[in-house]
## 1
Amino acid sequence: TEEMLARGRRAHDLDRKHVFHSWQAQGPFNPMTIVRSEGTRVWDGEGRELLDFSSQLVNTNIGHQHPAVVRAIQDQAADICTIAPQHVNDARSEAARLIAEIAPDGLEHVFFTNGGADANEHAIRMARLHTGRQKVLSAYRSYHGGTNLAVNLTGDPRRFANDNPGDGVVHFMPAYPYRSYFGSTTEAEETERALRHLEDMITLEGPQNIAALLLETVPGTAGIYAPPAGYLEGVRELTERHGIMFIADEVMAGFGRTGEWLAIDHWGVTPDLITFAKGVNSGYVPLGGVIISDEVYSSFVDRQYPGGLTYSGHPLACAAAVATITAMRDEGMIENAKRMGDEVIGPRLEEIKAKHPSVGDVRGMGCFWAIELVKNRETREPLAPYGGSSDAMNAVMGAIKEGGVLPFANFNRIHVVPPLNVSEADVRTALDVIDRALDVADGYVE
Ligand code: PLP
């Protein structure tokens, strides 16, 4: 409506005057206004409808404004908006029960945080206290959050400005078949070589000094590159052998994104700690946390855990989690995500790859897919440099938005990450738009 658009224009003015944005040079930044959102759709400041194939920051796993979750938040607000973390609250207890039920056996306790970064910070703190060791191994080409330690754990250029060499973080090369650091030509070779590299890293850094290994089960923002067969099992075996806590970061990959409740379910590995956020309640109210193994938990039975947050287990956030998990179950969203990935997105992306010389690789699972764009299929030179953008990528993104689709993009990749309850018709429409937009990318192929 005209009133909605007028409100949007006023909000945009005020935003530019007073809002300081994440990760931006504030001056040139011209944010998109969203005046309305519902299901798989959002409406921009001109009132244009867009298919949200970004799920925002890959968090609205049940789509926008799911009525059952909106109602649960309203009901909780009418009942108890907030209560300090030291008290019992039924929304918090029930959320913890449901999350522990989703996690593998032997991880029965949940520490709630405000989001993913602080979940990783606390998981590392727990691992350090539990093992009495300080160093942490994490992968290049990863993202673990924006707070001080989390951004250092991160393996992308955003950490450069925040690098803190004293923090005990050591990065290793992950298994990444499309751009193998190890010169591998098959997945089996990649698994074997990446694990040998990791074993060498552990030996050279001194296993007796390594508290934890932190790894995104399926790295998200860094490229949605699932681990090749055997890799995670190998990581589990290596860490176990050396008494190193294996922390699986499921902040983006967890809660149905890959077509399983947790991404680790695809490989049947059991980490010592699991971090989550985003999809746990679709981000309707900020929430994250750490799922804790009985072994780590035992360290804090007689000893105080030195950490806490005013909003740990916030009732509004936990009520949203309970309603989200329930809606996912009742509406078969995980099954839908799996079917969309296996039967619709995967096959259609293969067609797109066959047709467009600018497409170097398509990969993913469930509602979690990446299209990697290149200037040249043989050399695999990316269409935008690592850590940067390019005219070509901007042109492709412009064409996709012009076509009525909001994708998630990073460097030379377009991520196809719709909500888990997306319809087949919406997937087909969005992928047709992306298909046409890739003609633009083909114009940059050398
Ligand atoms: N870990 C992963 C894998 C993520 O994708 C993100 C956010 O994108 C985070 C951690 C950080 O979560 P938050 O932004 O809620 O702090």
Note: Residues 32-65+332-442 form a domain with the Aspartate Aminotransferase, domain 1 fold (CATH 3.90.1150.10).
## 2
Amino acid sequence: MEKVGVIGAGVMGRGVAQNLAQSGVNTVLVDLSEEILEAAKEEIYNSVRLQSLFKKAEVTESPQEVLGKIFFTTDITLLNDASFAIENITEDWGKKEKVHKMLNSICPENCNILVNTSCISITRVAAVYNHPERVIGTHFMNPVPLKTAVEVIRGYHTSEQTIQETECLLKKMGKESIVINDYPGFVSNRISHLMMNEAAFIVQDGIAAPEEIDEIFKKCYGHKMGPLETADLIGLDTVVKSLKVLYESYQDSKFRCCPLLRKMTDAGLHGKKSGKGFYEY
Ligand code: NAI
């Protein structure tokens, strides 16, 4: 059976690992400490339990059965026989570069490297590899097990074979692939981060409260979530890091981070994952 390595067990990595395990894929989930892995186990357990309680008719396996298909480890060298490695670590180029250098030396030559990032250029990541044609972007949406499409990013060197094999894996996970070309922020985040950032400026300027801004998007535009609810769900720390990448990549002041966002993250308000952001959880 195919073995898929998932690196990073935070908000996205644990969702990807759960989705893979529920699709019958042999999954190895890697993070830096046992403590983080234990937290991921608990989150996956709760997520599967909620899925079966609230809706998904197709959820037939118990949380224990799903967890039984995931091997939790701090040892990244276990990916030496993986067919796919899906990297979901912190949105920080220095950290990502180190992990990709490791993956380049550990993973087999024919292993597809899937990069889950909000904004970092896939071509930049691929430059670390001896086989850049195997590197591709997979911008999963949050929460991963519930979302039905993935923004797939073709780097400068990404081969057709890599695209096809990635699309196959994503199909197995119940997801449609929308393939686009590589530029920082891709399509989704190049647009959505401008909206979230501008919404934060509107709060900072005292023009409207978060609830009012989000209601306008939901009730007037028919969006499922407003920009500030979305920012809280993503994690305000991740939004700030992504804006930094966009600002540096395009050298364009339209991506300058709203000071209120920076102040909130400095104060430990990271959104839903920390219990407080623009809203309380
Ligand atoms: P997070 O902060 O929740 O989790 C990141 C995880 O990476 C942490 O558990 C951390 O311990 C781990 N990590 C850091 N360095 C590592 C290393 N050297 N080896 C193994 N694990 C390591 O971040 P989140 O939200 O899961 O984001 C992950 C990536 O996905 C980022 O690049 C982000 O931009 C992207 N993304 C995030 C979305 C969101 O809604 N949060 C949506 C789509 C993409």
Note: The first helix runs from residue 11 to 22.
